[in-house]
């Protein structure tokens, strides 16, 4: 049975969600404030987390940033106010895997949970390497020639897509669709900015531009 952390301060929502997730086969651990949630995520292992951003004591966005900066890489779905797109963007940029606006239907939460768990299990185990660059999905760590490199959550997400598709070029449109889930998150040059920042950190030749095709992680064997 998969252990899941539910961080929600509304007792009625927490009760109903816990009951439905338990019925769906999850072993649910519920925390109602930010301090307890932060501690649980740092010191226990969970298959996934459902994280309300409006927690008392420590807000959910701060918790998520601390988890990611400390190498905690479990899938996280954030809960936001229905019309608050700024929170959604901040959450995704901080390392959230998906989001859901309140009020929501349990069927959608379950579908999103199963989707992030499938994505996580598909690429969370092995270190991926191409040329001097490698990433460790378990720790969300990036290395160049074995030395750690600090990257932001969105830079990591972009690099992860390139590494999972090493050997072929990824178009700017495909990268945009994989990195940004909503049109309002996308800017015309957002992918170019991410690629530029990654090149500064990984080395100018770490990411190749294939004219007419897109971007490709270098293998180290290019001439």
From TrEMBL:
Residues 3-117 form the Response regulatory domain. The keyword Cell wall biogenesis/degradation does not apply. The modification 4-aspartylphosphate is found at residue 52. GO terms for biological process: phosphorelay signal transduction system. The keyword 4Fe-4S does not apply. Pfam families: Response_reg (PF00072), Trans_reg_C (PF00486). Keywords: DNA-binding, Phosphoprotein, Transcription, Transcription regulation, Two-component regulatory system. One of its GO terms (molecular function) is DNA binding. Residues 125-219 form the OmpR/PhoB-type domain. Residues 125-219 bind DNA. PROSITE patterns: OMPR_PHOB (PS51755), RESPONSE_REGULATORY (PS50110). This is Response regulator transcription factor.
């Amino acid at each position: 049975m998969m252990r899941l952390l539910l961080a929600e301060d509304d007792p009625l929502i927490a009760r109903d969600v816990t009951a439905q997730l338990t019925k769906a086969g999850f072993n649910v651990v519920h925390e109602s404030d930010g301090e307890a949630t932060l501690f649980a995520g740092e010191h226990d292992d969970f298959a996934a987390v459902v994280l309300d951003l409006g927690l008392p004591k420590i807000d959910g966005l701060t918790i998520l940033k601390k988890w990611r900066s400390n190498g905690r890489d479990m899938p996280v779905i954030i809960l936001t106010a229905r019309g608050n797109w700024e929170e959604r963007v901040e959450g995704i940029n901080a390392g959230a895997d998906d989001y859901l606006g309140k009020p929501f239907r349990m069927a959608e939460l379950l579908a999103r949970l199963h989707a992030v768990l499938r994505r996580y299990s598909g690429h969370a185990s092995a270190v991926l390497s191409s040329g001097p660059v490698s990433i460790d999905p378990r720790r969300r760590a990036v290395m160049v020639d074995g030395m750690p490199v600090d990257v932001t959550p969105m830079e990591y997400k972009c690099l992860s897509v390139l590494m999972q598709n090493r050997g072929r070029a990824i178009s700017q449109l495909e990268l945009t669709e994989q990195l940004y889930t909503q049109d309002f998150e996308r800017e015309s040059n957002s992918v170019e900015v991410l690629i530029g920042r990654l090149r500064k950190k990984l080395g100018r030749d770490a990411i190749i531009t294939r004219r007419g095709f897109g971007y490709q992680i270098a293998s180290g064997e290019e001439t």
